[in-house]
Amino acid sequence: MQTDALLFDPDEARIEALDRFFVDASLAQVHPLIRDWGAVATDAELREAQRDAIRAAVDGRAGQGRAVFASPPPPDMSRLIEFDGHRLIATLDAHNPAGGRPFIRLFRSTVPPGMIADWAGLKRRLLRRFAAFGPGEVLFFHPSHLPLCVETAEIDDHLLAAPVGKMSGMPKAAGSMRVTLKRSSSLAFYPRYKAVYDATYVERPGLRGEVRTETEDSLGFCLRHGFLFEILVDGKWAGVVAAKWRTLAGVRGVFMVEIVLDGHVRGQRLGPAVHQLFAEAVAMSAPEAVIIGTISAKNPWSLQAARRAGRIEIGAWHWVHL
Questions:
Q1: What is the predicted pLDDT for the residue at 98?
Q2: Which helix (H) or strand (E) holds 14?
Q3: What is the mean pLDDT of residues 253-267?
Q4: Cβ neighbours around 38 below 10 Å, total
Q5: Rounded to an integer, what distance in angstroms lies between the CA atom of residue 292 and that of residue 158?
C-alpha cells in the first residue's frame, strides 16, 4: 500500500536528511550541457532554494488529519509525498496568474515528474492531499535531455541557456551595427518602458498574463546588483535589457529578467543582436558566466530570437490537467 511520507519526525536531523536527499536528486537531473559549461548550482544554493519548502512539507504533517483548512491557504502549503518509490514536494499555489483555479507545483522530486509512469495514480494522490482547495492543474519542470513519459496539456515556460563566450563568439547578428547597449545609471526610463508594454498588450493581447511588466523595484535590483542596460537603435532609445545572478532548476547563471524592444523597431530581427551585445557586456566582468532565462510558450517571437542568438533549450515547465 502506498503511503504519504509524512512519517518523518519534524526535527532538524530529519529535515537535514531530506535536504541532502533532494539536493542529490536535483544535481542528478541537471542537463549535461550545464555540467559541461560549469554552471551547476552549488549544494549551498540548492539548499537555500528548497529549505523553506522542505520544512513546510515536514511540519505540514501536523495538519493532515484536520477536516478544515485555512482559507486562503498559507503561501508555504507544501506536502511531502511518497508515490511509487519516488518522493516529491508538492506545493499549492492558490494564486493562479491566469485567474483560474489553484494549482500544484511539483517543486522537488527524486525523479523528473515527467518520467513517472503512473500519472493517473499520482493525480489521485495529489487531489486527495489538496482536496479542500480544488486544484485544477499540476505544473512541473522537465529537463529536455530526458524522455517525457506523460501526456501534458501544454508548456508554460521554456528554459534556455548558453555560455556568454559561445553567444558573443557567434558571427555578428543582423543589424548589429544599428544596435548599442548603454549601461543604465538610474530608472529614469521607467515611464517609457512601461508604455512599451502597454502598447504591446494592445498589439498582442495574448501576451497579457504571460509576459509581465517588471516593477521599478525589480529593475532597481538589477541596477544595483546585476546588469541593467538601455537599448539604442540608430542612436535612439528602443528598449531595456535587465538581468541578475540567480539559481534556477539546478543552474547558476545570469538570469534574464527583461529584454524588450519598442514597437517602432520590433519585427526588424534585431533581437539576436541585442542578445549578442548583452553577452559581450556580461563577458567583460564574468567571462565564464552562463546566461539563463525563461520564455513563455505563448511568446514565439522571443523564443525565436533567443534561439537565433545561440541559447539552447535545457528544459521546460509543463502543465497536466487534474
A1: 57
A2: helix 12-28
A3: 93
A4: 11
A5: 10
